[in-house]
Amino acid sequence: MTSLATTLKESWTLVEEHQDKVAQYFYARIFLSDPRLRDLFPLHLDATRARLLGAIVTAVQTIEDPERFDEYLTFLGRDHRKFRIESVHFGLVGQALIDAMRAFAGERWSPVYEQAWQDAYRMMARKMLAAAQDETTPPYWHAEIIKHERRSRDIAVFTCRMMQPFGYRAGQYVSIESDRHPRVWRVYSMANAPRTDNTLDFHVRAVGAGWLSGALVRRAQVGDMLRIAAPMGSMAVDPRSTRDIVCVAGGTGLAPIKAIVDELSRTNRTRWVHLFFGARDREDLYDLDDLMGLTERCPWLTVTPVVSNDPTFDGEHGTVADVMAGYGPWKHHDVFVSGSPAMVRATLRRLAEIRVPSVRIKYDSFGDQ
Length: 369
Ligand SMILES: Cc1cc2nc3c(=O)[nH]c(=O)nc-3n(C[C@H](O)[C@H](O)[C@H](O)COP(=O)(O)OP(=O)(O)OC[C@H]3O[C@@H](n4cnc5c(N)ncnc54)[C@H](O)[C@@H]3O)c2cc1C
Ligand code: HEM
What we know:
Elements: H1 4-12, H2 19-33, H3 51-61, H4 66-79, H5 87-105, H6 111-134, E1 141-150, E2 155-162, E3 173-178, E4 186-189, E5 199-205, H7 211-219, E6 225-228, E7 245-250, H8 254-267, E8 273-279, H9 288-297, E9 301-307, E10 316-317, H10 320-326, E11 334-339, H11 341-353, E12 361-365
Parallel strand pairs: 7-8, 7-11, 8-9, 9-10, 11-12
Antiparallel strand pairs: 1-2, 1-6, 2-5, 3-4, 3-6
Helix pairs in contact: 1-6, 2-5, 4-6, 5-6, 10-11
């Protein structure tokens, strides 16, 4: 008998090449079925048009791995509370999904495929709704920006104060929404370990035509309010490990690494930590002064800045992955990596080449791998 996962994958191949059109149709069906649903989505759907559809398809495809499927949907259910959706919306979105697939699949679409998608979607919706109902924390927290510094043309470091108590672990990230772009949620990593005054630091780089990053870097001001959803991510220090640590950060990928070093600065006495901080040029090493200050307070910390494109820089030149590898061996270290997808990919490749076991590597990539 064909498994549900195989039937879902097989039927997805019928529409895969028309993904953009399927997404357009899908959103049109959602908004036609209840025009008020338009207000739940960002004003401009262009950059993220395929986000919800793509996400549902990815979720469906994890169905073969029940543990991952459960964990992912529990997280999504809790997280979707920030979108202010109601249980009745699930039925409308599910129907729009199936209508869109049927419209583009052609003659090979069959009642078996339709039933498979209905069953899978219903299963996901049920898990998401149950997780949302069981959750006792707020859907999001309110925070006020209390300090905002432009550190380079494209990079800002800012601090906000949470209005309600907020727990997280150093190395985690949160989803943020600003009044300047309502309903545009993007994730950013905290750059400090939890503090008693309930403040969080963020390091943000404005990317190309990016919606939220541009606003957070160029227009955000002290006094602006943000909404911040529950913390996510598992890039945390294992307190039971006694291994020395190597950290590799590219650009604002420094944020979660700095939080980890901040946490270690309160507890660590025995583990050597070597932090490689890579950027294009000296200006983009936007937090180097702070890091050097930390090395004075923490004798176990070494910081090596690396630039890839600045002949005037008095220090290491090249990619941060290559320079890090040259300082090895790191076979017996715990390793943390964070930065753009390209930087993370290159670093993981170099770590594999110098035989660092993958179980000791934790990483966050600022986008799809
Ligand atoms: C786990 C995680 C943690 C993150 N932490 C941070 C952080 O601490 N600091 C930080 O600055 N960013 C971080 N990011 C990236 C952040 O979530 C956003 O993706 C980024 O700020 C762009 O959002 P935007 O709304 O400005 O751009 P969007 O409106 O989403 O994108 C607009 C356009 O820019 C392109 N684009 C998006 N991202 C990039 C990019 N990185 N480089 C080049 N082009 C891009 C898109 O393809 C699109 O064409 C993190 C991402 C992840 C997944
Ligand atoms: C099984 C059902 C669903 C799954 C698996 C799912 C999954 C996802 C995922 C993974 C994202 C992207 C993550 C993010 O931006 O934080 C997303 C975004 C979103 N989802 Fe869902 N979702 C489901 C149902 C719904 C329903 C019923 C609604 C209500 C209308 C909804 C509204 C949204 C909105 C508004 C976004 C943000 C879109 C954007 O930023 O462009 N989702 N969904």
